[in-house]
Write a structure and sequence with these properties.
Bound molecules: adenosine-5'-diphosphate, magnesium ion
Strand content: 25-35%
Strand order of the largest sheet: 6-7-8-3-9-10-11
Number of domains: 2
Oligomer: single chain
CATH class of the largest domain: Alpha Beta
CATH superfamily of the largest domain: P-loop containing nucleotide triphosphate hydrolases
CATH topology of the largest domain: Rossmann fold
Shape: globular
Number of helices: 10
Structural class: alpha/beta
Helix content: 25-40%
């Protein structure tokens, strides 16, 4: 470790240790999250020490191959499942230690969710307006102005999401895209801090998927709700500022997008891919990189003033 004395390294480590705790101030904090399922004596490690931070007001996507652990993570964040180990906090609520009562309140008031299957989101015998009013009634408080206040909020949400015309229709009288937008209104009914969606456009064609995604964006921009969307849809993943990839139950990389002015002064979207550095210091090197330099088993690390060099093993 050229140019860096042990004392200097120790000083830097101490500086980090005395700083704020991991995830302080974040809306969603997953810290080395583990979920193991046991079925018929076989253990499946769906989450293997997953780290994730989401800021308040963010709109972000989670991507990853089938079986990588996305739904497992969403079920935990939704308060429907409990992790085996690690820590998870949403809006200050500790998802491991909540009792049944706190969990119920959490699911009704702190998070809203939209699932892929449109049929899972809405009650078939209620109209759109009744579906949206239901979570407010279940919450059991009269709210600002009781029934009138509720009706007003139902109207506001349906028109914000462009489904005002569906007010008195039951789910079977709506298109798939309309059902999902009404589902977003239901999820937003109690003004949750976080809106979670697990492949919400998975059953829709791409044009309809775009409209549903636009509804999520509107919820994020107009209400300030933090939104996390699991998606296979490249178009959706390409429209958010941050998409995090999950691989084998861990976050592996993320893409950040921002608009920049090009040489001609035109706005252009610039995307940059980052590798995830987990809490244990683990980093996954892309196979194209390691293969190009013939790296396997062991590499040399060197700490430089502003970067870390990874070199092929030179041991004889
Ligand atoms: P994704 O949503 O990314 O497709 P999942 O979170 O559904 O992935 O699944 C991750 C892994 O955990 C898979 O191997 C899946 O078979 C397993 N798994 C998920 N839920 C259960 C469960 N309830 N019991 C046993 N295994 C499960
Ligand atoms: Mg899934």
């Amino acid at each position: 470790m050229r140019d860096t004395t042990l004392a200097e390294l120790e000083r830097r480590v101490a500086e980090r240790r005395d700083g704020p705790a991991y995830g302080d101030g974040a809306m969603i904090v997953c810290d080395r999250l583990v979920r193991v399922f046991s079925a018929d004596g076989v253990e499946v490690q769906a989450l293997q020490g997953l780290d994730l931070l989401v800021r308040e007001g963010e709109l972000m996507a989670l991507v990853g191959a089938s079986g990588s652990g996305k739904s497992t993570l969403m079920n935990i964040l939704a308060g429907l499942d409990v992790p085996t180990a690690g820590a998870a906090r949403v809006a200050g609520c500790d998802l491991l230690t909540m009792d049944a009562r706190a969990r119920l309140r959490y699911r009704r008031e702190v998070v809203g969710f939209v699932w892929q299957q449109t049929a899972r989101n809405l009650l078939p015998y209620l109209t759109a307006a009744q579906n949206v009013a239901l979570p407010m009634q279940l919450r059991g408080r009269a709210g600002r102005a009781g029934r009138a206040g509720r009706a007003g909020r139902v109207r506001e949400l349906l028109s914000m999401l462009d489904v005002a015309e569906c007010r008195d229709r039951r789910p079977h009288q709506m298109s798939g895209g309309q059902q999902q937008r009404v589902a977003i209104a239901v999820a937003l009914a109690n003004a949750p801090s976080v809106l979670l969606a697990d492949e919400p456009t998975g059953e829709l064609d791409s044009a309809t998927g775009e409209q549903v995604f636009a509804a999520f964006r509107r919820a994020n921009e107009e209400l300030g709700t933090t939104v996390v969307i699991v998606t296979h849809d490249r178009a959706v993943a390409g429209e958010v500022r941050r998409s995090v990839a999950i691989r084998d139950g861990r976050t592996s990389s993320e893409v950040l997008r921002r608009t920049e002015l090009d040489a001609q002064g035109r706005e252009a979207m610039v995307a940059r891919e980052y590798a995830t550095l987990d809490r244990a210091g683990r980093l996954q090197l892309p196979a194209e990189y390691t293969e190009a330099l013939g790296m396997e088993h062991r590499v040399l690390l060197e700490l430089e003033p502003d970067h870390i060099a990874v070199r092929p093993d030179d041991a004889p």
